[in-house]
Amino acid sequence: MIPDLRDLASLVRLTAREELLPRFASVKREFKDDGSVVTVADGAVQARLSAALGQRWPDYRLLGEEMTAEEQAALVAEPGPGLWVLDPLDGTSNFAAGIPFFSVSLALLAGGESVLGVVYDPTRDECFTARKGRGVWLNDEPLRRVAISLLLKRAIAAVDFKRLPVELAARFAAEPPYASQRSFGSVALDWCWVAAGRFHVYLHGRQKLWDYAAGHLILAEAGGYACTLAGERVPLASNEPRAAVAALDRALFEEWWDWIRGG
Questions:
Q1: Closest Cα partner for 151 from 254, 244, 223, 261?
Q2: How many other CB atoms are found less than 10 A from the CB of residue 184?
Q3: What confidence score (pLDDT) does residue 234 get?
Q4: Which phi and psi (to 5°) does residue 120 adopt?
Q5: For tag attachment on the chain, is the N or C end more exposed, with fewer CB atoms within 10 Å?
Q6: pLDDT on residue 38
Q7: pLDDT at 48
Q8: Which residue segment(s) compose the domain that 233 sits in?
Q9: Helix, strand, or coil here: 43?
Q10: Does residue 158 belong to any structural domain of this protein?
Q11: CATH number of the structural domain spanning residue 171
């Protein structure tokens, strides 16, 4: 039985408020082998949600960012009837530096697809939620569909340059096709802000499963469009990193995708 989305959102919100906000900008950061930042807050959120989810829904296992690569790969290969996918603190560098743009991202995968998604921004008290085939909400209200109707040259783009192919990044620097560009540092919130129409187009060169499992569902349920840089659908049941190209408006997505491909 699929868990109740409101119950799930309440659990995520309470955990973030009690484990993240008291530690905001006041924790020591450490660095993983890949150079990414981790804090005690990451582990605290993952431990608390892992215990709470296991108690309420014992049939589902949990894959968290703060697990070993071997543990993550094993869970993706054998997910069982359902698999929670958790990023306990998406935007850890922002969190540790005192920048108020970070989130908790939680998705439930079943049959290789994301069926529930929750992304919570505790500094704004904004909780984006989605259920596959049922729609998307912001703080328990249906997310208002935004009519963009923009040309690419008028769009605000969210682009993470650090992980792009060098040739593509150079094209953006030499001839940016959009009006302006942002990169705020929380992938899960990037997806949600595209869904809400705050960003118009999106590009990220390297995301892991826990980065996009919830956010991609939220965008899809808002009517958005996404693919990888190889032109494939953004896959979910994979532990390999993937690029993401996205927009909420179909015409804008096609113009964005044509430019990225060199059209």
A1: 254
A2: 16
A3: 81
A4: -120, 125
A5: N
A6: 67
A7: 97
A8: 152-260
A9: helix
A10: yes
A11: 3.40.190.80
Cα 120 to the chain's mean position, in Å?
10
Q: CA-to-CA distance for 5 and 231, rounded, in angstroms?
A: 31
Q: pLDDT > 70: what percent of the chain?
A: 94
Low-confidence ranges of the chain (pLDDT < 70): 27-38, 147, 236, 263
Distance CA 217, CA 209 (A): 12
The pLDDT of residue 262 is 87
Whether residue 95 sits in one domain with residue 157: no
Residue 38's contacts (CB-CB under 8 Å, 6 or more residues apart) are 29, 30, 31, 32, 66, 92
**Tokens representing residue 212 in the block:** 């996009």
C-alpha span between 227 and 190 (Å, rounded): 15
What average pLDDT does the chain have?
Answer: 91
147, 129 Cβ separation under 8 angstroms: no
The secondary structure of 65-103 as a DSSP string is TTS-HHHHHHHHHS-TT-EEEEEEEETHHHHHHT-S--E
- Structure token pair of residue 23: 């530690």
| Of 142, 172, 193, the domain-final residue | 142
CA distances to 105, 157, 193, 213 from 198, rounded to whole Å, are: 19, 9, 5, 20
| Amino acid at residue number 159 | V
On whether the pTM is more than 0.90, the answer is yes
Let me know whether 14 and 102 are in one domain. Answer: yes
Distance CA(198)–CA(33), nearest Å, equals: 34
Question: Distance between CA 44 and CA 61 in Å, rounded?
Answer: 18
DSSP-derived letter for residue 185 is S
